[in-house]
């Protein structure tokens, strides 16, 4: 029997799981906005991974103003310098006050550090967090170890896996 199978090297998230965890994130953020009634002005998704959680959060919190910021920091699993490819609406954003910025995960924290610099008063939220980037995020749901690779459902497909024992 092998020690580890390829599909065990990561943390595999199903659509159902990301839906539940994103709802949990919405639940945690509900009523914590800076407005008197605790609401948030807008949701901004960090594309592309933040779009699915941002959609779920904005649906749960009844936020109709949704914008995007595009930050690219990885080529497959190789990290490079984080760069902003597209900014959200300037007038909407201001210094970030009342804006909920959502991403799927924080890993090294490079992406969020850049976003924080641009919008110092925004609230940064992710569904998953790794220890190295945890300081960069104000609200998250689940922490995984630094050496875990999170596999999201939009990056996967159902396929055959070999049994632990056997040759087929
Ligand atoms: O904390 P960091 O080390 O900066 O990494 C986290 C970021 O990396 C991934 O995005 P990626 O740049 O791969 O783009 P994508 O969302 O379009 O897949 C992920 O979705 C986060 O946005
Ligand atoms: O799909 C992903 N899983 C991860 O664990 C990760 N870390 C940075 N970027 C990532 N993308
Ligand atoms: Mg991303």
Structure keywords:
168 residues; alpha/beta; Rossmann fold; six-stranded mixed beta sheet; two-stranded parallel sheet; 4 helices; 23% helix; binds 1-O-pyrophosphono-5-O-phosphono-alpha-D-ribofuranose; binds xanthine; binds magnesium ion
Summarize the structure.
The chain is of the alpha/beta class. It contains 4 helices and 8 strands.
Overview of the structural elements:
With 168 residues, the chain is α/β, with parallel strands linked by helices. It has one domain (11-155): Rossmann fold (3-Layer(aba) Sandwich), CATH 3.40.50. Helices cover 23% and strands 30% of the residues. The strands form two sheets. The protein has a six-stranded mixed sheet with strand order 4-3-2-5-6-7, sandwiched between helices. Strands 1-8 form a two-stranded parallel sheet. The two termini are 14 Å apart. Magnesium ion (MG) is lined by residues 46, 49, 103. It is found in: Cell membrane. 5-phospho-alpha-D-ribose 1-diphosphate binds at residues 48-49, 103-111. Xanthine binds at residues 107, 150. It is a peripheral membrane protein. Its cofactor is Mg(2+).
């Amino acid at each position: 029997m092998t020690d580890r199978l390829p599909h065990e090297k990561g943390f595999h998230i199903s659509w159902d799981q990301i839906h539940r965890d994103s709802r949990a994130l919405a639940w945690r953020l509900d009523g914590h906005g800076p407005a008197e009634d605790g609401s948030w002005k807008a949701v901004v998704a960090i594309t592309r991974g933040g779009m699915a959680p941002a959609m779920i959060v904005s649906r749960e919190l009844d936020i109709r103003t949704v914008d995007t910021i595009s930050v690219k920091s990885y080529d497959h699993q190789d990290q490079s310098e984080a760069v902003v490819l597209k900014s959200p609406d300037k007038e909407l954003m201001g210094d970030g006050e009342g804006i909920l910025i959502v991403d799927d995960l924080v890993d090294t924290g490079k992406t969020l550090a850049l976003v924080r610099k641009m919008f110092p008063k925004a609230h940064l939220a992710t569904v998953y967090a790794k220890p190295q980037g945890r300081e960069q995020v104000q609200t998250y749901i689940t922490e995984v170890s630094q050496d875990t690779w999170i596999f999201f459902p939009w990056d996967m497909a159902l396929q055959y896996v070999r049994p632990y024992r056997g040759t087929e």
